[in-house]
Amino acid sequence: xxxxxxxxxxxxxxxxxxxxxxxxxxxxxxxxxxxxxxxxxxxxxxxxxxxxxxxxxxxxxxxxxxxxxxxxxxxxxxxxxxxxxxxxxxxxxxxxxxxxxxxxxxxxxxxxxxxxxxxxxxxxxxxxxxxxxxxxxxxxxxxxxxxxxxxxxxxxxxxxxxxxxxxxxxxxxxxxxxxxxxxxxxxxxxxxxxxxxxxxxxxxxxxxxxxxxxxxxxxxxxxxxxxxxxxxxxxxxxxxxxxxxxxxxxxxxxxxxxxxxxxxxxxxxxxxxxxxxxxxxxxxxxxxxxxxxxxxxxxxxxxxxxxxxxxxxxxxxxxxxxxxxxxxxxxxxxxxxxxxxxxxxxxxxxxxxxxxxxxxxxxxxxxxxxxxxxxxxxxxxxxxxxxxxxxxx
Length: 393
Prior knowledge:
Rossmann fold, mainly alpha, 20 helices, five-stranded parallel β-sheet, 5 strands
């Protein structure tokens, strides 16, 4: 049992982490963006609640430290290149939906339209460029990210069936939000209930404003490589509960929402996150993972439905998971039409090529049962009753 242990207390001591980040980076300015309350809430929960084993403690401390160092390096980059803050993030397409509803596939297909930007996995993992980067050669962060992906899959081969890991493919910007210390990433790694509860009560505007700053930096970096495009395609289930904040920070955003029966998505999400929990804890917490991720997905879904009731219907397009699996390009053509975007020949060709190169059967099936995570079909249907009536039944 590691909750509240001396090891946890030492690993997640705030002043030491801040000092280590400054020492490691050789930088001292974290910038004007507020992050200390969120950092404090996360560290308190990690110290007092997280049932971490030695590996989990090492990984979680490293992630917090990396986020602090990233903030220092991003601020240094902006200080040296203030034009970064002049980059405009115009009318992004935002793919939202519960976990396990095809959002990754749709993001990657949309990103194959040569007019669209997306965050590559290596960019979300390491958004701050190395010093004195030569923009004319392959980025040195790429092999580091590739090695990390390989290590993840070696440590837990189940991950290959859960998510299409690829360091050089588009992926969700949840790892960018992680650097704000307001994200659902930490609760995907370990059981920290007080931090989860704290998050639910927060205004996420500062987190999304920092996300915009990171996208400005990444867009500026892409520009240095001669990669200039019209719009971003963003994706993370995290956005599901924060549509109003997304629209406030990205006023031109349009949303593609994916739909699949929660009876299918909830146990899949529980399986995905429990796979991470089990790496970093010696306790069997499958039932807790099932409960927490049912609650998290229901919470986000209810908030999304409320947001949709107060925003213009023309800013949303709904895509059923089954239709996305059968003919995603037709579904995206419908979305483009609603948002006033031409489905160009080049866009269609890029999308069709992506589909040809990425058949789902290249990956092993993701297998799980409700009972493994203490879930029942009746309980899930009750938790998502309004959503299922509106989009599933």
